[in-house]
Amino acid sequence: MGDWRSASSTTFDMIKSANIVELVESIGPWPFITRRVYRNLDHSLVVWRSRHHRKGLPLKKAGKLLSIGRELRRCFWMPQEMNWWIGTVFAGGSFLFLLGSVFSLVPDLARMLSMAHSDS
Q1: Which helix (H) or strand (E) holds 110?
Q2: Is the pTM of this model over 0.85?
Q3: CA-CA distances (angstroms) from residue 8 to 5, 47, 76?
Q4: What pLDDT is attached to residue 7?
Q5: Residues 83 and 31 in one domain
Q6: Which pLDDT score, from 0 to 100, does residue 64 have?
Q7: In the chain, how many domains are there?
Q8: Sequence-ordered list of residues with C-beta below 8 angstroms from that of 91, at least 6 positions apart, any chain
Q9: Sheet holding 35-40, edge to edge
Q10: Of the four, 33, 54, 89, 116, which is 20 to 30 A from 80 by CA?
Q11: Cα dihedral angle (29, 33, 35, 37), rounded to 10 degrees?
């Protein structure tokens, strides 16, 4: 499709690599480009996605899979993000609500787990 330098200057800022030599594919109507594929000097392909860029996720080489553990850790352990804390507090509150509901439906279980002894 042409040299990568023919793309917008913001694309250069996003990729930030001297190894990128060619823009192979660009998907989406201008100016709403959602995916670009670049070729490196070693002929490997680098896929840029607008969503990954917006969320600050790393670029991936085409066809390269990251380990499941690394992907899960990156998705589930992000304490520096406000959304992560909101989700964690919501999940904790939901669990406590579930626990209260179960104890109200099964009072014998609540009595069995109670720390206070009552003879009623």
Answers
A1: helix 107-113
A2: no
A3: 8, 16, 34
A4: 40
A5: no
A6: 56
A7: 2
A8: none
A9: 20-27, 35-40, 45-49, 60-61
A10: 33
A11: 90
Same domain? For 14 and 62 the reply is yes
Q: Which domain holds residue 6?
A: 1-67
Query: Does the structure show a pLDDT above 70 at 16?
Result: no
C-alpha to C-alpha distance for 76 and 85, rounded to whole angstroms? 11
In this structure, are 56 and 87 located in the same domain? no
Most confident of 37-41, 92-96, 106-110: 92-96
pLDDT in tens, 47-80: 888 877 777 766 565 555 556 677 677 777 778 8
Coil/strand/helix, residue 61: strand
Both tokens assigned to 60 = 């991936």
What are the φ/ψ torsions at residue 68 (nearest 5 degrees)? -60, -45
Contact call for residues 56 and 71 (beta carbons, < 8 A): no
The tokens for 39 are: 């070729």
Tokens 């109200």, located at residue: 104
Give the pair of three-digit tokens for residue 35: 């995916």
* pLDDT-derived band at 12, boundaries 50, 70, 90: very low
